[in-house]
Amino acid sequence: MILNSILDIIIILLILIAVIAMLSTVIGFIRLPDEITKIHAAGVTGSFSVELILIAGFVYFYRYLNVFEYKFLLAIAFLFLAAPVSAHMISISAIIYNKRVYSKNNKDEAKKVLDDIGKLNK
């Protein structure tokens, strides 16, 4: 009986932390200045919150329905691997297509990336 209430609290905490992370994703996506920082907000906290909800679902299915749902584990592993890679690829394409990158010190931070890409293409 105590284990069930502890698992209930863990599931509720996971979902609450995920909701807070989703809210921070939305706030970051609205408030941040350029595409690359917005991609960072969406990629990091967005995938983190979805992974927390998947973990809560896995715990719920395993404990209360007595079903080992390997699909939750596969989805968590896929998100863990695919979300950072896709965010990185989108940011690199934004730099290649000369999107303006926000910088407080007025340096062209994207120039280093474009030079490295140019060296690889030669």
Automatic annotation (TrEMBL):
This is Monovalent cation/H+ antiporter subunit G. One of its GO terms (cellular component) is membrane. Pfam families: PhaG_MnhG_YufB (PF03334). It is found in: Membrane. GO terms for molecular function: sodium:proton antiporter activity. InterPro entries: PhaG_MnhG_YufB (IPR005133). The chain crosses the membrane at residues 6-30, 42-62, 74-97. The keyword Glycoprotein does not apply. Belongs to the CPA3 antiporters (TC 2.A.63) subunit G family. Keywords: Antiport, Membrane, Transmembrane, Transmembrane helix, Transport. It is a multi-pass membrane protein. Its main location: membrane.
